[in-house]
Structures
1.
Amino acid sequence: MFTTAAASSTWLTGFTVCLSLIASIGAQNLYVLRQAVQGEHVRACVAWCVVSDALLVALGVAGMAQLLGSSPLLAQWLQWGGALFLLAYGLFAWHRAFLATGGGLDAGGDRVARGLLGVVSGLAVITLLNPHVYLDTVLLIGSIGARQDGWLKAVFVLGAASASLTWFAVLAFAGRRLQRVFANPLAWRVLDALTGAMMFVLAWWVWRGV
C-alpha cells in the first residue's frame, strides 16, 4: 500500500538526485544563462529544459536506463561522444571570444537578436545531441527512478522535473541580474573565454570517466 509519506520521499529523491546532477557548469546551463543575460526567449528556454529533462528521465525510468546499463560498449561510446561534444562547444566559445569579428555584436556594439525558433533550435541541439546528457539524465537518474514501485515512478519523474524547473528559474533570475554587467561588449568575450576553458575541463573529465 502506497502512502503519502512514500510519495513525499520518492518525490524528494527525484528532486535531490536531479538537482545534484544538473546544478553544475555545463553547455545547456551556460546557454540558458546566456539567453537570460540577453533577455531573449528566456521562458521558452526554461520550458524546453524542464520538458526535455522530464521526458529523458521518464525514458530512463521506463527502461532505457536498463538498456544502457546492460551495454558497456554503448555507454563507452556515449562517454567519448560527450567529451568530443564538450570539446567542440569549447572551441566555438573560444572562436567567439578571440577570433569572431565583433564577437556576435552588431556595428553599434549591441548583441545580435535571434528569433524564437533559432534560440530554441540551438538549445535543442545542445540538449539532444550531447551524448553525455544520456549518461546523466537517462542512465543515472533513470536507473534510480526505475527502482521505485508502481505509480511512484511517476512521482519520481515529477520530483526530477520540479528540480529542473527550480534550477533553470534560478539561472534565468541570475541572468537578469547580470544584464548591467554584460552591457559592456568586453564582458561577452570574457564570458566566452571562460566558457571555452570550462568546456575543455569538462571534456577532459568526461573522457577520463572520473
Note: The longest helix spans residues 42-69.
2.
Amino acid sequence: MSAAEDIQIAQEDRLRADLYNFLGLMLSAPPDQLLLDQCAGLSGDESDLGQAIGALSRVARVTKPKKVESEFNALFIGLGRGELLPYASYYLTGFLNEKPLAVLRTDMAARGITRAANVFEPEDNIASLMEMMGGMIVGRFGKPAPLDDQKLFFNKHIAPWAGHFFSDLEGAKNSVLYASLGSVGKAFMEIEREAFRLTAG
C-alpha cells in the first residue's frame, strides 16, 4: 500500500478496523499466550466500550491458554455443537446455511471478498463478518469501502443479529474471558449502529 493510499484512511477508521479485526481474531480460534498478553495490555476509558475493554484486560491477565481453549471449545464447538452457534443464518432463521448466507455470498462476490482456502466455516460466522468489516474499512479487498457501502454491509449482515449474539456471549454459562469479549462486542456494535444511523445515505 502506498503512502498516498495510507493517508486516505482516517485514524478513527483505522481504530474501527483494528477493533473489528481483533474481535474476528478472538472469535476465530482460542487466543494463545501472545494474544492474551496483548489483551492484558489494553486499557479503556469511562465509556461503555472503554469499561468493557478494561474488564477484558483484567480477565486476560489471569487467564491461561489451556483454560481459554476449553472455554472456546465449550462455547463454539462442544460435543456435537457448542453452547452458541455464531452464524447469521442461525440467529436470523433458526437454521444453518439459510438465505442470509446466500445473500452474504452474493455481496461478498460483488466486493471481491473470497473465503480463505483453509477456512471451512460458513462465511456468515461472526468472526468472518468482523474480519470482512475490518478489511472493507482499510481496503484489504481493493479500495477502502466508502462509508455508505460500509453502512449497507453492516445494516444487512451484522446489525440484525450481532448485538444479540454478543449479549448471548456475555451471558453464556461457559463464558469467562469471552463474557468480557461479549461486552466489548456489544458496546462496539451499539456505537457502530448509532454512527451509521447518523450518516447520510
Note: DSSP finds eleven helices and no strands in the chain.
3.
Amino acid sequence: MQCALHTAGLCYSCQWIDKPYSQQLADKQQNLTELMAGRIIDNLLEPVTGAESAFRNKAKMVISGSVERPILGLPIKQGVAIDLCDCPLYPQSMSAVFPLLKTFIAKAGLTPYNVERKRGELKFILLTESRASGGLMLRFVLRSELKLEQLRNALPWLQSQLPQLRVISVNIQPVHMAVLEGEQEIILTKQESLEEQFNHIPLFIRPRSFFQTNALVAEKLYQTARDWVSVLDVSSMWDLFCGVGGFGLHCATAKTPNISLTGIEISAEAIECAKKSAQAIGLTDIHFDALDSTRFAESHHAVPDLVLVNPPRRGIGELLCQYLSEMSPAYILYSSCNAQTMANDLRRLQDYQVIKVQLFDMFPHTAHYEVLTLLRRQ
C-alpha cells in the first residue's frame, strides 16, 4: 500500500507500511509463537487476512482549522494540522463523504475546538459505514450544547446530500482532555442503530457501541468461532464481554438445536443491540444482560459447557481466570485484541490444553492483530 502522508512524514499511524505485507504477517505470527512459548499447542493455524487498503468501516477525525476551512484528521502537532481525508485505509464510499462534512461544518457554523485556547465547539467527527447496506452512522462530538440548535437546523441539507445517513447523533464531551467522547449522547434521527450483517447474522450498532473496524476480517473471525464450536459437544455457553453479540449469536447457531446462550456486557447500549439481533433471527434460549463480566461469573454457580471471552486490551485478569479454573467449563474460547495479555491469562489457566490458535490480521501495516484460541479442560 502506498500512502502520500506517510511518505511526506506527516502520519505514522501505519508503522509497518514500508514492510512487505508477507513479512508483516510472518512477524506477527512469530510474535504470537513467542508469546505462546511454554504451552503445548495442538494446532497453530495460518493467519487470516483481508484487504491491505480501504478496509476501515470507521473514521475518527479530530476537527481543527476554521469554520470556513475545517480540517478532518490528526491532532495538531507543532502547529500543523494533518488532513486524513485521502487516507488509503478508507474505502472510496467513505472518502467521498468527507468533503460534504466540511461544507456542512461551515453551513452549521460549528467552530472547531482549539485545544491550546480551550475555545470552540466541534471536537471530533465519527463516521461508521455498514458494509451490508452502505448506510452511515454519523456522530458529532461537541464541547457543549451551545451549537446544537444550529446543527439541527442545518441537518436537512446534509441529509439531502447523503441519503445513506441512517443514524445521526451528538455527543457532549466538555472535558479539556484527550477523551474521545462524553456520557451524554443526543440522537437526532428516528433510527437509533445501524444494521450490519456478518454471515447472515444481523448485528446492530448504536452510537456508543464498540464494533470492529475491519468488517471483512471480523466476519471471518466470527465464522471461525462458529466452525470451531460446531464440532464440540456443548449445549450451553456464556459469552462474556459480549459487545453487540457477534460471537455469541454465531456460536449459538452453530448447532441444531441451538446452544443455550447467556451474554454479558457492561454497556447497556450494546446489550440492547444484542437482544435486537437475537429477536431478528428468532433465537429464544438466549439471555443478554448489562453486567460486569467478572462479577457475573463469580455470582453464578451453574457451569456452562463453554465460556467465550472477548475482553478489552487488558485481558480477563487474575480474578476471572481463577474463577474459570474453579468452575471448570469443558471449553474456553478466548478472542483477544492483545496477545500479550491473553498469554498472561493463559498462564493462569494451567488446567486447560490449547487446542487451536489462529491469528486474524485486523490491523494491516501495524504490529497489532487479533487472535482466537480454543482451550479444553484437561
Note: The longest helix spans residues 215-230.
4.
Amino acid sequence: MTQTESSADHKALMDTHASRRYFQKFERITQHLTQVAAARAAEGELSDLDVAVITRYLTAISYTFRALSMKYLLVGRDTGKFFGSLSMDAVESGFPVFNELLVMANDAQQAQTHLRNMPSSEDLKDQMLRVIIGEREIPTKLQFAMSQRLYYEELLKGELFWAQNHPQVEWVENLEDRRRFLVHWAVYDSQVNLPTIYLLEIEDSGRTALPKDERRWPEVQAHLMAQSLGGLKLVTIAKGFDESFDDLHPKRLRRYHVGPMYSSAYTRQTGPIRDVLEQARAPEGDDWALAWTVEELLSERVKEERAGWFSTVEREVFALDPFSGRGVDTGATRMERAIILPQRPFQALEELSPPGFASVRKYVVSPQGRVLSY
C-alpha cells in the first residue's frame, strides 16, 4: 500500500460531536467485550485464568480510549492553537491508527514533566469560574488546558494498552517432572491497526521455573515480541519457539484479533456488513458491529529428535485444520469468527442472511445491555 493510499484510508475526527460520539461508542463496546469473554467462559470455552487475562487486556484497551478521549476532548473548538485530531482507520479497522499509540507512549514518558508545569485542576477550575462570571465567556482555552491535564493524569495511572505489551507469565499447575505456565502478551498490529492478544500455554522441563530464570525469561520475552507479527502463521511462531528453547514445550497457542469495528457513522465498509447496517437504521449508539477472530493451534503429539551425540530433545507436532487442506493455509488447528452487535443490526443480519455469516458466532447486545450468544 502506498503512502497516499494509506492516508486516504485514515480519517481525522475534526468535529467535536463526532469525536465524542466515537469515544462513547467504544466505551460501550469495550464493556460488551468483557461480557463476551464471560459468556465464552460460561460456555466452557475459556478457563477462569483465560478470562482474567483477556479481560485485563480489554480493560487496558478501554483505558487507552479514555486517555485519547481526554486528549481530543476539545477537538473542533477554538483552543488558541491547532492541536490536531484523532486519526482513525476508516477502512480496515475503525480503530485509531498505529501512530496514535506511538505518540501516546511518548507522551506517557513525559507526563510527569507536563503535569509539573501545569496549573492544578483546582486552579484551572477557579480561573474558569472567573471567566464565566466576570467576562461572561466560555473559557475554551482553560477547558483545553484541563483536558490536557486529565490526559496526562490518565497516562500516569498506567495499565493502558500500548503498541507493545510485553509478555507476562502465569503459573497454571505442577506436573510430575515439569510445570505448566500461561504466557500472554499483546501488540497493536501496525498493518491493520487492531489490538491483537496472544496466549501461549507451555510446559517447562527446565531446572529453574521460567519466571525465576534470569537467563531464559528475558530471552523468551524478546523472542515472542519479535515474532508478534499479524502476517506470521501460528504454526510458524510455535515452531520457531519450540526449536529455540529445548526445555520449553508449546502446547497451545491462541491469537485474538479484536476488531474491525464497523459503523455507518465512521467507517467506509463494503459488502454484506454495509447492507446490514443500512437496513438496520439503528439509533445513534447502536449503529455498529465489531468482529472478533480467534486462531488456535494445538500440539497433537511429541517426537524425539537427536541433539548432539548422546542426547535427544522433544519437539511438538502441531495439528492443522484437516478440512479441505485449509490448515496449511491458515497455519492453525482451528479458527473461529464472531461478531458482536446490538439487537437492531442483528435483526437486519438475520433478515438479509448474507452468505458466509452462517458459521459466524453472534453475540447480541440487548437494549438492557445484556450479551446473548447465538
Note: The CA atoms of residues 74 and 142 lie 11 Å apart.
